[in-house]
Amino acid sequence: MPVLSANLGFPRMGANRELKRQVEAYWSGKVDVSALLKTAHELRKNHWILQKNVLGLDIVPSNDFSFYDHVLDNAFTVGAIPKRYRDVFIKANDDLLPSALEGDLLSTYFAMARGFQQLSSEGSELPVIDLEAMEMKKWFDTNYHYIVPEFDSTQQFKLTSNKFLEEYKQAKSLGIETRPVLIGPVSFLLLGKASPNSPAGFEPIQLLDRLLPVYEEIIKHLAEAGACSIQLDEPCLVLDLDPKMAQSYNVAYSCLSVAAKKSSAEPIKIHLTTYFGDITPNLSFVLPHLPIDSLHIDLVREPQQFETILSAAAKHPTIQLSIGIINGRNIWKSDLCAAFDKVKKAVEVLGADRVIIAPSCSLLHTPHSLDAETELNPEIKDWLSFSVEKIKEIVLLTKAANNGIDCIKDELEANQRSIQARRTSPKTHNPAVQERLGSITHDMMHRRSTFDKRWEKQQEVFKLPRFPTTTIGSFPQTSEVRKARAAFKRGDISQEKYNEFINEEIKKCIQLQEKNDLDVLVHGEFERTDMVEFFGEHLEGYTFTKNGWVQSYGSRCVKPPIIFGDVYRPKPITVEVAKYTQSLTKKPVKGMLTVTMLQWSFVRDDQHNKLTTQQLALAIRDEVSDLEAAGINVIQIDEPALREGLPLRHSKWQEYLNWAVDCFLLASCSVADTKQIHTHMCYSDFYDIIDAIIRMDADVITIENSRSNLKFLRGDSFTYPNEIGPGIYDIHSPRIPLHEEMEHRLEEMLKRLKRNSVWVNPDCGLKTRKWNEVDLALKNMTDVAKKFRSKSC
């Protein structure tokens, strides 16, 4: 049997974001469920045909498609639907296995992801149904967000959706054999959380024995449909795991192996997949104990694990090794010569029939194809590889492994020319930027005074009330805003007309904030397509795609800029907009900046991330200084990705946190004591890096805390020395937060925080919301702040 080529997952949205548009049309009532399902059906078909018939992959995934999130899909499949959603939506015969996510089940699914609110038809202010969304969290160290499964000690699992089966059958009807993908049972439980009513000491992994029969049933259904293999993703194997977890993996895969063998005459093969890190510290969990048929490892993020795992695999002649040698998370063209060296070594040790060539992880994290990038600089475009191109690289390497490297001689020579051209291009290096890096001193990373002294001076300047109110930055990006931006980019309207339009939107935004009596205002960010893309467009060293969209969460897509060279700021970026906005009001207006551009860009891979981040920090430092000189007294420097960039192994945390926090300080510490520095973070576990967050020394931090149900404040000894605004309501849901729930959250905050240090604000920016939702939500929020101000100390 020859070396095989495989993919672990394909981008879901479509080449032109067809799924995004149809899902959002369904949410708004513009299309019905049949239209949504038809779009999904066509996208899956097109993606399978592209991978198998056009590009020539041997192993194509199925069940990697999702309407919102694959972890939510997995929860839905095994019946991990919290009772509050089930009670509202699922009223039909609960014993029936649905044919797909449709009807009441689809409503339940989206309510879990986004929340649901049904207002009374009789005009009452209280809704008839009011369901908050489930917690959302970053998927390991990526900018993809997943819905956190929720379990309690009485949890019972049951096969609730056969999406995995229907999608396998759909591909099979096209003549395409696929490998269905699910989250492995152990990682699924480890990625979840205990529900609030769970008894002390309960951990979701204790539910493994109850969960496994559902996985056995899944294997049985797939085997009966003719499936040859199943991909079970166990990314938690790259984390620091308690040695006791080895028993959980052993129990799980021994059980599933038995199910696979008795499911049909030809046992279904189990492909265990890891990614994002090194599994060698947990290798004993897998080899030699687990009865699996193949193992996937990520050799892009952790190439040093190759020799150890190759040696271990050689001792187990029935196991195939899938080597992830094409980067599934970044967009640079692979060095095919270097990659082929690993392929050749694997074949020498294991034999061709035991080697599979694959991307490092699912291609969910990269754009669809370079075909639409007609406006990219040709030199830079030649350095890039998106999902389609990555599959072509995998197929080329597989062809060379099976037929000899000479059969791809022309493609290999072209690849090496591209690699060398990028390495030597003057576009990638700027001597002035390198020289400035050498001028960074320790003193540049400290404010002039300690926070207590700054606080006294800032109180005299701002005279803010207790529980000051603010928002995180962005306001609704309506269709009118997007149309005006598109018209300007096409040249249909002039810069002057576009500026007039943006200024009117800013004026409307200020008026709404003043009407609702917020204390520190924002301009709304209407001129910004995306917080990272906007700044990248004004910095040298960046380039931008036309259609390089990547899913962030649900229907939300981002178009990460590409850092290809040394970064610097040629001229001020936000100063004029900030000055104009401040002229509209007597209240303080925040200058809005972001430092998180490393994690939310496709970053260069030819130097350490620390150096790139230092360059970004110096660019932001220049902007901060210009805002200060222009009379802007409050400056927010967002850093939501600080936790996201944290290495997955604890042993590497401190090195990263040292330089990451230093870069924030480098960006923010040039201002006078009377200037108030804000920062914002969201959708990660921050409590375990609280010391690093404190060292950032921002005067005010706003942080997501509502969607995760106050998790950030749950630590027994939680303290925060400066001012803090834990989010008081979830902005990713269309529901309007009620007074009572915000009052409850604020009361809980005050059990752990000093009364005169708490700000009142939403979880995150309001970009994805509608104006009427924002108006009502902010009114409720400021009403709550005023109520607490009136209470005695």
Automatic annotation (TrEMBL):
Chain sites annotated for binding L-methionine: 472-474, 525, 638
Residue numbers binding Zn(2+): 680, 682, 704, 764
Active-site residues, record numbering mapped to chain: 732 (proton donor)
Alphabetic keyword roster: Amino-acid biosynthesis, Metal-binding, Methionine biosynthesis, Methyltransferase, Transferase, Zinc
Pathway(s) where this gene product acts: Amino-acid biosynthesis; L-methionine biosynthesis via de novo pathway; L-methionine from L-homocysteine (MetE route): step 1/1
Record's cofactor remark: Binds 2 Zn(2+) ions per subunit.
Catalytic activity, EC: 2.1.1.14
Protein name, UniProt field: 5-methyltetrahydropteroyltriglutamate--homocysteine S-methyltransferase
Source organism: Dentiscutata erythropus
